Amino acid sequence: MYSLTILAALLAAVPTFAQAPLWGQCGGQGWTGPTTCVSGACCQYSNAYYSQCVQGTCGGSNPQTTTTRTTTGGSTQPTSGSNGQCGSGSPHATVTGSSGNYRASRGSTTLYTGSNYLSAITAALNGISSGERVSVMASGSIGANTISISSGKTFEVCGTIDVGNRSGRGAIESTGTNGVSIPFLTMTGNPYFGLLFYGTSNLSLGQITMNLSGGMGIRFHRDEAANSNVKIGTVRVTGAGSHAIETWNINGLTIDQVIARDVGECALLLQKVTNARVGLVDGNNVAAGTGYATLRFANENGKLNGGYGTNIYIDKVVSRGGGRGVFCVSASGGAEIKTVDLASNGNNAILIENCYNVAIRGGTVNGGGEVRLAARTEFANNKDISITLRVDGTTVRESPCGTNISWNLSGNGARNIC
Ligand SMILES: *[C@@H]1O[C@H](CO)[C@@H](O)[C@H](O)[C@H]1NC(C)=O
Ligand SMILES: *[C@@H]1O[C@H](CO)[C@@H](O)[C@H](O)[C@H]1NC(C)=O
Ligand SMILES: *[C@@H]1O[C@H](CO)[C@@H](O)[C@H](O)[C@H]1NC(C)=O
Ligand SMILES: *[C@@H]1O[C@H](CO)[C@@H](O)[C@H](O)[C@H]1NC(C)=O
Ligand SMILES: *[C@@H]1O[C@H](CO)[C@@H](O)[C@H](O)[C@H]1NC(C)=O
Questions:
Q1: Fewer C-beta within 10 Å: the chain N or C terminus?
Q2: Could you give the residue ranges of the DSSP H alpha helices within 113-192?
Q3: From CA 31, how far away is CA 233, in angstroms rounded?
Q4: Domains of the chain, residue spans
Q5: What is the per-residue pLDDT across 252-294, written as a single tens digit (0 to 9) for each?
Q6: Ligand 2 atom nearest to CA at 160
Q7: Domain 67-81+139-416 classification at class level
Q8: 337-353 CB burial, b ≥16 within 10 A, e <16
Q9: Is the shortest distance between the CB of 190 and ligand 3 below 6 Å?
Q10: Nearest bound ligand to CA 363?
């Protein structure tokens, strides 16, 4: 009550100067607070009862500031769905409000009001059809539950969604769908899987930020239907206990950037993925004390039509500290990494083990664990590996000798190669 009194006094004292914060209310029936927004935001009408400050400019047109791909080989199509800013334009349904008081609406129709954030989100998603969009302009917690997104729907979270641990399940899932889009999402909490997918086609993820206290960020499931044509923009993950992104069974994957900080296992783990193009994979303190890596290929990743023709293209891998930098294992390959920047990795800077047709075209390794070509007995030895690299402060070792291995090394690192 004390703070409300102060607030009321402040509002009464300077009503014409106050501006609503980003995501704050700025209008609606009975609203007596500020009706303008802080710089960089504008007041967008949601319904008769609620207008809210959103980022950028309001209006029905599609802003031209959409994220475009930076991947050299990728297309230039936007990854962020239909709009450049979260909540911009005219979402078909919205969730607004704050803790204890959420509202889902479609135009002037109220779909839900009440204290349950998950119910508000579910009502909004149920209130749109394929080809339409829900914008969640509110923050809250869904607990250990799952939000499911069906075909053709665009779901964006402009606030922060806090999630719990539902064993074996995703906090947000889309399975057996076509054309689902999540242009914006910020998530906190300790999910089993933050996002879980399988059997998807034409899935598009845009700017995804996950500040987790455990669990896995994004998973494309293993023993389930495969996925095709998956586009991912920039994914930032901190604090996951497991991988930031683990993929199985995708044909046709593009990713702009994966940025992982203090993540327990991989930044990006590709398995049984074909025809992939990835811009940047950047890990800092990723996979510390484990055999995982900032970038790992495993389980026949890149095996296409029974062979290993190049079909996995990675622009750049940056890795600092943590476990391994780059790790290719278990009959994976068909991969080209344009450049690496690896330093102080606590395990191998690079480990290539039973892989076929892998090229690292340039870059540097500075200290950390050795650069190693190795082999286990259960798969054929390394073949057709080409490495151009400057290595300082750590060793390069090929043992056992592979077939058709081509080294182009510079730097002071000791060499024990065939
Ligand atoms: C994916 O999108 C393309 C292009 O719009 C379309 O031709 C294709 O049928 C879609 N895939 C599925 C499985 O619907
Ligand atoms: C997520 O973490 C980043 C980096 O630590 C921080 O800048 C950002 O504010 C965090 N966002 C949320 C919603 O926790
Ligand atoms: C989630 O719960 C399971 C048990 O159901 C547990 O094994 C797992 O470690 C938990 N994960 C997180 C991130 O809390
Ligand atoms: C050796 O490997 C390279 C790829 O690194 C490949 O282009 C070349 O054809 C291979 N040579 C033979 C003789 O297999
Ligand atoms: C070895 O790599 C350097 C760049 O570090 C490049 O200029 C040179 O052409 C390469 N040599 C061969 C034989 O590929």
A1: N
A2: 117-126
A3: 38
A4: 19-59, 67-81+139-416
A5: 999 999 999 999 999 999 999 999 999 999 999 999 999 999 9
A6: 13
A7: mainly beta
A8: bbbbebbbbbbbbbbbb
A9: yes
A10: 5
